[in-house]
Write a structure and sequence with these properties.
Number of strands: 0
Structural class: mainly alpha
Shape: elongated
């Protein structure tokens, strides 16, 4: 959720849900069991796995 009063300039810089959701679903699911100590960058992850934008 985006807090009320957040400047429009910042709102436009946030990643859209269609970019975040695929990697978030992966991390919440069983497929990510054992995944630890890694940085997952949603746009890069989506390109690697063909999901998102």
């Amino acid at each position: 959720m985006i807090p009320e009063g957040m400047p429009e300039k910042i709102r436009h810089s946030l990643l859209k849900p269609e970019i975040i959701v695929p990697s978030a679903v992966y991390l919440a699911g069983n497929e990510s069991d054992g995944v630890t100590g890694q940085r997952i960058v949603a746009p890069e992850w989506n390109k690697q796995f063909g999901q998102g934008y």
